[in-house]
Amino acid sequence: MTQATQWIFMNGAFVTKEDAKVSVYDHGFLYGDGIFEGIRAYGGNIYRLREHLVRLYDSAQAILLTIPYSMEEMEKIVVDTVRKNNLENAYIRLVVSRGVGNLGLDPASCKEPNVIVIAEQLALYPKEFYERGMEVVTVATRRNRSDILNPKVKSLNYLNNILIRIEASLAGAGEALTLNTEGYVAECSGDNVFIVRNRVLWTPPAYLGALEGITRNAIIEIARELGYVVKEEPFTRHDVYTADEVFLTGTAAEIVPVIKVDGRVIGDGKPGSITHELLAEFRKRAVTDGVKVYPERQPVT
Ligand code: PMP
């Protein structure tokens, strides 16, 4: 059986995966100068695409990068890329790099950004992740300071996150909690964090040094609709250790229960009931909360 061609959007045209190449003089490659988004489609529905695009354009604004498409055009490009690859459930990567320049740091030499959209078959996390829960550790690498390189900008400079991720792997953990420089819990290498205590949910405020996750915001909304109190307030490792439930949120991860943090068993060592309730509600809504890729197709009932 021949493999279907994977089409990648590059600067206005679709090219094959094999032909999708970027110059070594691209400042995204040389300096991590650019921005990106990780987006997900559920059953032909691109989950909260508008929110992802708002975050992308905010990131662009923060680093003085002009995206050569309007938000409406970009929305169509993302939808067309998923359609072109005939995908229903997809992981989508949108990258805008500063583009080709000279070896100097000054982006003035970069005349045009590179805009790339990749959509591929979704690689699901193993089921047992959600059924049994995950173990995480706190690592020594602190999250970037908001007043130096604001984690709200989803930039191609992910070295801070990669160092955090490496520490998690070295410790044999699935993810890592990272603190800000004041010692408050910030987030994980690629996920946001929530704790539950006495049926109240807590997540660090983004100003402490976290990406304002789309999944995080969705969970805050869903939890409030279900009647839970959600606090976006600072907390410490002690609060995590003594929580009834801990879970992580992210586009790829969705909602992952955490059952051990730095060797401390959380609750009864099993994924919590509120975590399960939120995951089920999130998945139920994910197939409709977004932009339809195939509006002509009837929903399967
Ligand atoms: N924090 C970081 C550092 C991330 O890279 C991500 C995205 N993988 C998240 C949190 C989760 O954000 P979202 O729910 O928008 O995927």
UniProtKB/TrEMBL annotation:
PROSITE patterns noted in UniProt: AA_TRANSFER_CLASS_4
Keyword Ubl conjugation found: no
Entries under Pfam families matching the protein: Aminotran_4
Spans traversing the lipid bilayer: none
Enzyme class, broadest EC rank: transferase
Record keywords, A-Z: Amino-acid biosynthesis, Aminotransferase, Branched-chain amino acid biosynthesis, Pyridoxal phosphate, Transferase
Cofactor: pyridoxal 5'-phosphate
Family membership noted in the UniProt record: Belongs to the class-IV pyridoxal-phosphate-dependent aminotransferase family.
Protein name, as recorded: Branched-chain-amino-acid aminotransferase
Gene: ilvE
